[in-house]
Design a protein that fits this description.
451 residues; 7% strand
């Protein structure tokens, strides 16, 4: 049976001439034709890696590869050489060697490993055979690292992330979409254990897995406290399941009593109700124990949080002590005094620079006189009309000075018309003679007055 129809194949797969070359044996000496030898090796290496990624498996063997890459009832003849070359390059590794490279006591918990297959490989190697046993399993290193990273990501995003220890079966159920089989899960766990991110051990015949918690560089060994917490969590889960079953049983008894009462079987209905009471009493007792266990787990979680805070405080104190190792109050005061002195010096320098060079003082009296002269020149001449200046004061009968009631002399140019002058002349005439007959004047007089 061929599995190539389920995966994307390279374009040359349909080229008979090209595939006849690919399905042929490798030359014993690579130096005969290096280009052809390398192209064939690259072709099969890429195809094997692609097949593993499609199947979601990290283990390959020659027998499965021969079935997977059949073409027109032909089997590739050079896959044994490809497997050997990939093993020498470190792309794949024997399953037993990969597990043995992890110093973790893997023999006690690994499944389906280190059986007869590695012994066959060792025996054939000692005899100098270049053939790879068909059943010998190899781990694809690149694939197993990808699976390990995916497994760790799934665990940390699940509800089990709050539990440092999880059972192997629970983990297998959780990783069902990642690991195709149990062997793939074991290989991923071995890789994580090699990276110091998990520890797999046995407890009372049960395989348990402890993960590295966030904030830790590596997983710590499984301690008695871890085992105690794990047992409490297991007890909590079992009690939850039993309480749920008892609750369902109580509901069933109640429904059965209702049916019997409807049929008129009162005695049997009462018996069912008594059974329901007993079930509820047991459920209440188990629920009380469940609450006790939950309280203990909460206190343990709180104590772990307190421990983490105390460790953070301790680290902070140590760091602060180291940072203040060479700092004293005397040195701090000396530095502050030096800074103040330098600041004062800088202020004095800035003040000196900003003052600049002052000009010589001028004679202020001379400047005031010059300013007064400019003001006098700017005043207009009020006698531009040719009229005599009007006195602004006069003397009284006793010679005292009397302020003039006349208005202020206008300082602008006079714009006087002939009519205005004639009216003013008539008023003066009347004031001198006191006779109204002299009001009328000749045109010549008016013209003279206008002039």
């Amino acid at each position: 049976m061929s599995g190539t129809s389920e995966m994307s194949l390279p374009p040359e797969w349909n080229d008979d001439e090209r595939m006849n070359f690919m399905f042929s044996e490798f030359k014993e000496n690579r130096d005969v034709n290096t280009t052809d030898w390398d192209s064939k090796m690259d072709f099969w290496t890429a195809l094997i890696m692609r097949s593993c990624r499609r199947r979601g498996s990290v283990i390959v063997n020659l027998q499965d590869l021969n079935k997977t890459f059949q073409r027109k009832e032909k089997t590739p003849l050079g896959l044994s050489t490809v497997i050997q070359t990939m093993a020498r390059c470190g792309k794949i590794q024997r399953e037993s060697e990969f597990a043995a490279s992890v110093d973790c006591g893997w023999v006690s918990w690994s499944v389906g490993m280190l059986l007869v297959k590695p012994l066959k490989w060792t025996f054939s190697t000692l005899l100098g055979s270049n053939r790879v046993p068909l059943e010998e399993s190899f781990v694809v290193i690149e694939q197993v690292k990808e699976k390990a990273a995916e497994l760790l990501k799934v665990y940390r995003s699940s509800d089990f992330s709050s539990c440092s220890i999880i059972s192997f079966q629970e983990l297998y159920t959780l990783a069902s979409n990642i690991c195709a089989d149990e062997s793939t899960l074991c290989m991923a766990l071995l890789q994580l254990q090699k990276d110091k991110l998990v520890i797999v051990s046995l407890h009372e015949g049960e395989k348990i897995v402890k993960f590295c918690q966030p904030g830790q560089d590596r997983v710590s060994p499984v301690s008695d406290v871890d085992i105690g917490i794990y047992q409490l969590q297991r007890s909590e889960k079992l009690l939850e399941e039993r309480v749920q079953k008892l609750s369902l049983e109580a509901d069933r008894c109640k429904e059965e009593a209702r049916i019997l009462l409807r049929d008129g079987k009162k005695t049997q209905a009462l018996r069912c109700l008594r059974g329901r009471k007993r079930v509820e009493k047991r459920a209440d007792s188990l629920f009380a124990k469940l609450e006790t266990i939950r309280g203990i787990l909460e206190r343990i979680a709180q104590s772990q949080t307190d421990k983490m805070v105390m460790q953070a405080y301790q680290a902070g104190v140590s760091a602060l002590r180291m940072s203040l190792k060479d700092v004293t109050v005397e040195r701090a005061e000396s530095l502050v005094d030096q800074i103040q002195e330098l600041c004062d010096t800088q202020d004095e320098v800035n003040q000196t620079i900003s003052s600049g060079v002052t000009a010589a003082d001028e004679d202020m009296d001379e400047l005031e006189k010059e300013l007064k002269a400019l003001l006098d020149e700017s005043e207009p001449d009020v006698n531009t009309s040719g009229l005599p200046a009007v006195p602004t004061n006069r003397l009284g009968p006793a010679g005292e000075q009397i302020l003039s009631p006349l208005p202020d002399v206008p300082r602008g140019h006079l714009h006087v018309t002939a009519d205005v002058l004639e009216e003013e002349l008539n008023r003066l005439t009347l004031s001198e003679t006191g006779s109204p007959q002299r009001k009328a004047t000749s045109p010549e007089r008016r013209a003279e007055a206008a002039q």
